[in-house]
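Ex. 9. Protein: HNH endonuclease.
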Amino acid sequence: MAWLRLRCTPDDPVVRRGELLGFQFEGRTFPLIDNQLGIRKPQGMTAALSILTTYASDGARAPYEDAVGPDGLLRYKFQGNPRHYTNVGLRAAFELGVPLMWFFGVRQGLYLPFFPVWIVAVETEQSQIAVALEEAQRHLPIDAPLSPIERRYSERLTAQRLHQPVFRQRVIQAYGASCAMCRLRHRSLLDAAHIIPDRDPRGVPAVSNGLALCKIHHAAYDQNILGVRPDCVIEVRADILEEIDGPMLKHGLQEMHDLSLTLPRRRTDRPDRDLLEERYERFRAVG
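Predicted structure tokens for HNH endonuclease:
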């Protein structure tokens, strides 16, 4: 975990599969993930060391949507037979209260790490464990119903700690770490902008509902200073086009008018046309 803290920077927060498999500890190779299984339980250790969620292309639903329980905590499924040694390692991690690492796939062979995480319940009937992403979630009641305030708090923590970071990295990776409007390639200055806001029921954290935008174009998009037509052409609001100001207005905003977005290579990662149209109508209503 100390190595991950140094390795994962704002400009490069993801780790590659080869790095995790080739990790060196005390002069020998000590993989942080299993080469074939989703749970890493090293020989000679009592508890599991890490869990992994494999990358899958977004469909209409977020890849982790089904994994969030009514208490706002994330669930992770057992590896086949509950008596499999990896699942025994998960139970041991729960009983000992030791932390694990969770590697979440954001692209083929690329993972966003979350650590430390803790197993707070073993739900044998569902063949799964409940995972807390931070200390505050460890102290929520598991066997008793949560109050509405506790549930909302836990759901918000899960969104902030996992949903939003994973959505950001998946979108930025899909767009090649480049702003779809101006092509700025400084990763630390890029955001994942929702086409339909996440507060809307249709605003799912899927790549098809996202655009990789630099911070100024993200803000301009959110404030309806500019919009994106369903054909992926940028439109700047008429009153903004008539303004006279400094070079940022001219080159950063006005010159975006009528340009086409730079889109991901894979069609499945490109913006959903229906979502673009819905958002464009909201932009037109403001203008």
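Check your answer against this statement. The radius of gyration is 21 Å.
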